[in-house]
Specification:
Blueprint: E1 11-15, E2 20-24, E3 32-40, E4 48-51, E5 60-63, E6 70-77, E7 86-90, E8 107-111, H1 118-136, E9 141-145, H2 154-162, E10 165-169, H3 175-178, H4 181-203, H5 212-223, H6 226-234, H7 243-249
Helix pairs in contact: 1-2, 4-5, 4-6
Amino acid sequence: MDTEPTNSRPTSLLSDSENVRVTVAPIDPELVYGCDEVGFMPSRGSKRRVIGARNRSIQHQQGDGGRENTTVIVTICADGTATKPTVIFKGSAFNLNWNQENPAQASFAHSEKGWTDGEIGVAWIQDFHEQTKSKAQERTRLLLVDGHNSHYTRGFLRFAREHRIHVLCYPAHGTHVYQGRVVIFAPLKQYWTQEKDAYYRRTRKRITKSNFLLIYGTAHKQALTVENIKAAFRKTGVVPYNPEIVSDKLAPSKETSNQGELPAAQPTPV
């Protein structure tokens, strides 16, 4: 049985047991995507404190704020590009005040807790398809996701299958190794804090749903550079493919001691 290649550069594989030849094609880096959610607490209170040891150059700023969470779904591609983000506000209904200046051209949704769910997941992958189908030109796309249940609903997987989107899940408890989120989210959080503080100093207004897209969008455009995005895939060994990066991080612990005491000896005086 021969199957048509999905992408360019096909490779033939032969199974001796079944005598079946299958033509397999690698997925181009420009069609390898990764997505993840990041949470923000937009509320910015009026009380600010600076905490740190006396005569130290590094101080820590802390401020009060609310507990309301706003989730942003960020999707990056191995070629250094990114799709438009999706912002999920906490709320039971859409509010016209959310339609504001939007530098990142983000789409937005709402849920009771401000988190993604199965319904939003289906709407998100439909939006992902619309943003990436012209680049794909009917070739197969690879989408790397974590184990959140919104990525595995019947509607999500059915849509992915119908539109040639391969969904690959990171192993449980392994996203800190496989996922390049730190490379992206660390500068994103940093720019978010800078933009939030600058906005407050300039306007003396709190960060709410009515101005969140403006503040976040500015930080998003600064953090998601071509260099940062490519570094996220490179440092996790996805593109270029480098399994040694992962194997080193998941290597078993080295034996550092072969002697122990129970109970442990206590210092004197305790």
